[in-house]
Design goal:
heterodimer, A: mainly beta, four-stranded antiparallel β-sheet, B: mainly beta
Amino acid sequence: GAVVSQHPSWVICKSGTSVKIECRSLDFQATTMFWYRQFPKQSLMLMATSNEGSKATYEQGVEKDKFLINHASLTLSTLTVTSAHPEDSSFYICSAWRLADNNEQFFGPGTRLTVL
Amino acid sequence: DAKTTQPTSMDCAEGRAANLPCNHSTISGNEYVYWYRQIHSQGPQYIIHGLKNNETNEMASLIITEDRKSSTLILPHATLRDTAVYYCIVRVNTDKLIFGTGTRLQVFP
């Protein structure tokens, strides 16, 4: 089946620094990718929709200047958490919608971010 | 807001069928019913989806009522590895997935 990878799987950073998380579709091209955030014992919250070659669409309440998304190719989207603070500590998950299969989204394994 | 209602938690004995209900009374004619599950600290895993007809694959069966206002995910022979949070989601074919709170299924020996 289709595979989506994320890198890194976990990261610890100091408050005020920026962290980049990569999401790759390994065996298919993804015109659209999605970024979610999940706090402990809560459901996944959609942050933004990432479209290859165009600007991301952010959900209401998500700061686009803080969570920078770049979808430069059909297999890679990146999420940069800028000037991270402890409240940004969370589990970040991406998903990719395969071009040839509009009925299914494939999820990455997630990235655990801890901001000290 | 999520368009589905699911019980918060359920238990199931190993080897028995797990039947997970979902209400989606406001579903539109062009919206599909999707089921995903999330095992602790992992990304969600696709299980099954359907529009009108019942569906079956190697993981589960999806039963959708005739009026499409509710559905049931059936895991025919639950194992301990099926312990997870199960999410029922309705969406238009090409739209984004919005997760509700899901059902926490605990399979016990």
